[in-house]
Write a structure and sequence with these properties.
PRC-brl_dom, 3 domains, CBS domain, CBS domain-containing protein, CBS-domain, eight-stranded mixed β-sheet, PRC_barrel-like_sf, SH3 type barrels, Mg_transptr_MgtE_intracell_dom, six-stranded antiparallel β-sheet, 19 strands, alpha+beta, MgtE N-terminal fold
Length: 416
């Protein structure tokens, strides 16, 4: 096995692509799995938690790793796609070691773990060899002093730590895409998952909740106080919030809806009135809506909003007043691809696709799928009997509802 550098830090390893001998990427690193020994003895690194395409997590033994460098990991061949269940004797480095409170034996200094390094031992096994520790901040200093020490000079990593915080793991999760962060959270033990979720800010927690299996969503939301739960639901897209609230006990759901901002709660209540797996239940009530006097420049400015999904940013909807769902009459839709070919000062109304068939809220999931496929769309308007725009169904909404009910859990929770 060739390795450069000889010492590898876990936080820098996470996210690296994994390649097979042919140079094809087969996944990316999510965590390290180790087995703990007696206090002071270096833990042996058993392997890596690897996320393969489809958000499935599998196990990659260290014996199958041929090369690690600053930009990638190479393996001997195909990954074992079997589901990995963490054993009681195993510990996840990123998931369970970060933020542990430890003490340096030689100096008596205490702090929290923010990274761990592994090295190749004489036995050819990989072991954890160094611990990076940050002292608590003192006085006006923004950050406490940091230390990198030998593993055997640290006390506190071989036992459960009831004081374990979440600062450094939260920092790592904040750098990930929401789907990747959800995969890491799902793999944590329940108590650790809850502690980390509670430490995320409202907007980030909302993004991650949208990517978690329903059981995880409910479990985390039920651990929040009602006020914060309502705040997090407000940060979620209305259709995802409606799906989550529908999984809660009716009395809990009503309490949270009462605590939400009235406009946000109204959108959620409206979506909850529709029959499950219909266009009305799947749609988002916040597509990009413009008036008849909007210019192409206006449209392009709106779709640059980084909070829009690619599917929502693909179309704009031109309507009569009011311009919030349910709007005035839908005049037509404009494809951003078409608008990019028009002068910025021209009216969007001059580039409308006004002959496109629309969806009614009672359209079934199969009818929605057929509609998107027939017209080669990634999103489509949903209107009432008066052609008022109620919302838009996107292809990602459709897939969420067409896949098996436990698809997120199967995708996030499979290891090998």
């Amino acid at each position: 096995m060739s390795v450069a550098p000889s010492r590898v830090y876990a936080a820098r390893l996470v996210g690296l692509p994994i390649f097979d001998p042919q140079g094809d990427q087969v996944g990316k690193v999510r965590d390290l799995v180790v087995t703990m020994r007696l206090e002071g003895a270096q833990p042996r690194v058993l392997g890596m938690v690897a996320e393969v395409f489809g958000r499935r997590s599998v196990f990659l033994p260290m014996t199958r790793v041929t090369t690690i460098d600053s930009g990638q990991v190479y393996t001997t061949g195909l990954l074992n796609m079997r589901r990995f269940e963490q054993r009681s004797t195993e510990t996840l480095v990123m998931g369970q070691m970060l933020d542990r409170t430890v003490t340096i034996k030689s100096t008596g200094v205490s702090g929290t773990v923010y990274d761990v390094a592994m090295e190749r031992a004489r036995t050819r096994d990989w072991v954890l060899s160094r611990v990076a520790i940050q002292e608590p901040s003192k006085g006006l200093r923004r950050r406490g002093q940091t230390h990198v020490v030998e593993w055997n000079d640290v006390v506190g990593l071989s036992r459960t730590d009831d004081r374990q915080g979440a600062t450094h793991l939260v920092a790592a999760i904040n750098e990930m895409r929401p789907a990747d962060a959800a995969s890491m959270l799902h793999d944590l033990p329940v108590e650790r998952r809850t502690a980390v979720a509670l430490a995320l800010d409202d907007e980030r927690l909302a993004d991650v909740l949208e990517e978690l299996p329903e059981e995880d969503q409910v479990g985390i939301l039920e651990r929040l106080d009602s006020e914060r739960a309502a705040d997090v639901l407000e940060e979620m897209s209305a259709d995802d919030a409606a799906d989550l609230i529908a999984d809660l006990p009716p009395e809990t759901a009503e309490i949270l809806l009462q605590l939400m901002e009235p406009e946000e709660a109204e959108d959620v209540r409206r979506l909850m009135k529709y029959v499950e797996n219909t266009a009305g239940a799947m749609m988002t009530p916040e597509p990009v809506i413009l008036g008849p006097d909007a210019t192409v420049a206006d449209a392009l400015a709106h779709v640059r909003n980084p909070e829009l999904t690619p599917a929502l940013a693909a179309l704009v909807y031109v309507c009569r007043q009011p311009l919030e769902c349910p709007t005035g009459k839908l005049i037509g839709i404009a494809h951003i691809q078409r608008l990019l070919r028009e002068p910025p000062s021209t009216l969007v109304a001059g580039a409308l696709d006004d002959e496109l068939e629309v969806l009614r809220p009672e359209a079934t999931i199969d009818e929605v799928a057929a509609h998107l496929a027939t017209y080669n769309l990634v999103a489509a308007p949903v209107v009432d009997e008066n052609r008022r725009l109620l919302g838009a169904v996107t292809v990602d909404d459709l897939l969420d509802h067409m896949l098996p009910a436990n698809w997120r859990e199967r995708a996030a929770g499979r290891h090998g």
